[in-house]
């Protein structure tokens, strides 16, 4: 297996878009239409978007300074893991083991159409084959924060959605994806489409009585025109305009499925996760999640986003890249050789050499991970 480095500069978040949230006509009798950009004063003037972790978690009462380090690997069981998934799992495991903490395996099976228990069990088998043992979670769900499968945590998410709804900054949205695509231009850097606020109530905060909401709808959360700033362990200081880069985002979809942003925040908080390690395709999500942590009065973890592993065409690896899936890799390589290649790829070793994950703990250092956009394999 030969590796070359694929270098690409990650662009800084652009400034807030002008006229955000404006339009000229009503979309639904369900929602009053907002014809003017929303003033930032609707939130408390002392609201600090440059996030500072609360001294204590409002739900657990545990001080951030006394929390046991905890990391997590949270795969979706929609197919066999590929090399990029294993890269993330290895670095997450090494980071928390170096800190003397615990490693959680959470199964993110929010997609009922694609998620299968057999895939979850294959993930577990692959991790054990690599030497990446977890302390809690998995299919069996051992641990104090059980269940560790998101499909079994709906009642928990409902509780936190109600808490957010009580703030008056959530609202029902009947827009379909086609509606949004038809009215909004894609974000120029990556094709994302930012929701323009078509269903946002004209006055916020606003709590609509349940009997007034009859149409099938998603639940969205208003975001202010302020910046979220945080420091990433790999990519350094970040400043994100939620309004310009994200728009009001979904907490629960119209089909009743829970959205990733709410589920991951609630789960990480209740499971005591102190550090999140994942691909840089989710760097923007950190700002949305920090915003949710702040609204819910929960402690935010630290973040480390990793360069994506890419195929020879420069596209990030996916489960469709069967040649780099774990079933093929296990046929061609020993676990030691595969771990050594990934460690070299991350910059932890000067050259590829066979080793076990335990051999890398002492030398693990986040300063070795370079802030590249991608690494071609």
How is the topology of this model organized?
Elements: E1 70-73, H1 83-98, E2 102-105, H2 117-130, E3 136-137, H3 154-165, E4 170-173, H4 177-183, E5 218-221, E6 227-232, E7 236-241, H5 242-245, E8 249-252, H6 260-270, E9 275-279, H7 283-296, E10 302-306, E11 308-310, H8 326-332, H9 335-346, H10 357-360, E12 374-376
Parallel strand pairs: 1-2, 2-3, 9-10, 11-12
Antiparallel strand pairs: 4-5, 5-8, 6-7
Helix pairs in contact: 1-9, 6-7
Structural account:
- Helix content is 27%, strand content 13%.
- The protein has 10 helices and 12 strands.
- The protein has helices spanning 83-98, 117-130, 154-165, 177-183, 242-245, 260-270, 283-296, 326-332, 335-346, 357-360; strands spanning 70-73, 102-105, 136-137, 170-173, 218-221, 227-232, 236-241, 249-252, 275-279, 302-306, 308-310, 374-376.
- The strands form 5 sheets. The chain has a 3-stranded parallel beta sheet with strand order 1-2-3, with helices on one face.
- α6 (260-270) packs across α7 (283-296).
- It is globular.
- The termini are close together.
- The model is unreliable at 1-49 and 51-55 (pLDDT under 50).
């Amino acid at each position: 297996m030969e590796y070359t480095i694929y270098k690409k500069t990650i662009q800084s978040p652009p400034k807030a878009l002008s006229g955000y949230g404006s339009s000229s006509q009503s979309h639904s009798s369900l929602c009053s239409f907002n014809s003017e950009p929303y003033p930032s004063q609707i939130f408390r003037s002392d609201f600090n978007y440059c996030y500072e972790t609360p001294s204590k978690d409002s739900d657990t009462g545990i001080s951030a300074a006394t929390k046991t380090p905890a990391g997590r690997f949270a795969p979706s069981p929609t197919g066999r893991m590929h090399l990029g998934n294993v890269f993330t799992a290895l670095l997450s495991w090494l980071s928390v083991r170096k800190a003397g903490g615990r490693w959680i395996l959470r199964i993110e099976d929010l997609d009922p159409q694609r998620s299968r228990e057999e895939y979850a069990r294959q993930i577990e088998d692959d991790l054990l084959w690599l030497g990446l043992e977890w302390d809690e979670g998995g299919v069996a769900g051992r641990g104090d924060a059980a269940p560790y499968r998101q499909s079994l945590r709906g009642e928990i998410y409902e509780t936190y959605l109600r808490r957010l709804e009580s703030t008056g900054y959530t609202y029902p949205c009947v827009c379909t994806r086609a509606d949004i695509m038809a009215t909004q231009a894609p974000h120029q850097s990556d094709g994302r489409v930012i929701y323009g606020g078509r269903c946002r109530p004209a006055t916020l905060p606003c709590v609509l009585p349940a009997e007034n909401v009859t149409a099938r709808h998603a639940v969205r959360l208003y975001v202010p025109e302020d910046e979220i700033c945080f420091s990433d362990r790999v990519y350094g200081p970040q400043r994100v305009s939620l309004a310009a880069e994200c728009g009001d985002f979904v907490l629960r979809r119209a089909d009743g499925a829970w959205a990733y942003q709410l589920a991951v925040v609630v789960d990480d908080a209740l499971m005591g996760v102190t550090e999140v390690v994942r691909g840089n395709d989710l760097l923007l999500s950190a700002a949305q999640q920090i915003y949710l942590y702040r609204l819910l009065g929960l402690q935010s973890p630290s973040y480390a986003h990793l360069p994506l592993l890419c195929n020879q065409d420069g596209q990030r690896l996916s489960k469709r890249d069967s040649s780099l899936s774990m079933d093929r890799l296990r046929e061609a390589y020993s676990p030691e050789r595969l771990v050594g290649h990934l460690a070299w790829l991350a910059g932890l070793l000067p050259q590829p050499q066979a080793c076990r994950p335990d051999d890398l703990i002492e030398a693990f250092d986040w300063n070795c991970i370079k802030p590249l956009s991608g690494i071609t394999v």
